[in-house]
Amino acid sequence: MCGRYFIADEALEGYDIEALNRATANGVSDFQPGMEAPVIVADCEGVERMHWGFSREQGGLVINARVETMEEKPMFRGLVDGQRCAVPASGYYEWRRADKQKYAVDMRDSGRIWLAGLYRVGSRGKEFVVVTQPPLQAIQPIHNRMPLILPDKAAVDRWLRGDIPLFEDNGALRIAAEGPEQLQMTF
Fold it and tell me: Which of 61, 73, 90, 145 could form a disulfide with 132 if both were Cys (CB 3.0 to 4.6 A apart)?
């Protein structure tokens, strides 16, 4: 599951910086559900600001969609073909349930990734969810889900055009424990 992600300045290079600055809510760099965040919706150039999470009539937010079932679930089914988005990020955070240890997950050789997403117009305007996949082996000790990572613009283009380029473990991920009481451990 992806419940928080972060953007460093280098992740924003190559985009309309003025649009991204407007979209990143005045310099916010850590995003959590309910917040507005920048989202790419067309040909890797169209940056929009959307709320993270689909609002529900009974309250609360749905923040993720499983790639395995998104075409079957009524909430997402109509969005899969035409309302895909990519969320620019540097990485995301995950918490190990057993001891609530926080981990930052990013790419070893890049300051930029994109998270696959779906969007719609909801009660708060445009809203998006992050698409998740089963975890890679390196993530399994931490969590049973992970975001569908789009590692480069080619993967973003494929996702936005309708393909599902599942992220595979090729040693590119860096996973580091975070927190003042923890040693910086890299897997």
Answer: 145
The 8-class DSSP code of residue 9 comes to G
Quick one: pLDDT band at residue 187, thresholds 50, 70, 90? very low
Q: How far apart are the first and last CA of the chain?
A: 19
Distance (Å, whole) CA 51 – CA 49? 7
Q: In whole angstroms, what is the distance from residue 174 CA to residue 96 CA?
A: 16
User: For residues 104 and 102, what is the distance between their CA atoms, to the nearest angstrom?
Assistant: 7
What amino acid is encoded at 73 in this protein?
K
pLDDT in tens, 85-120: 999 898 999 988 888 889 989 887 777 889 999 999
Task: List the Cα angle 168/32/165 in 5-degree steps.
Answer: 20
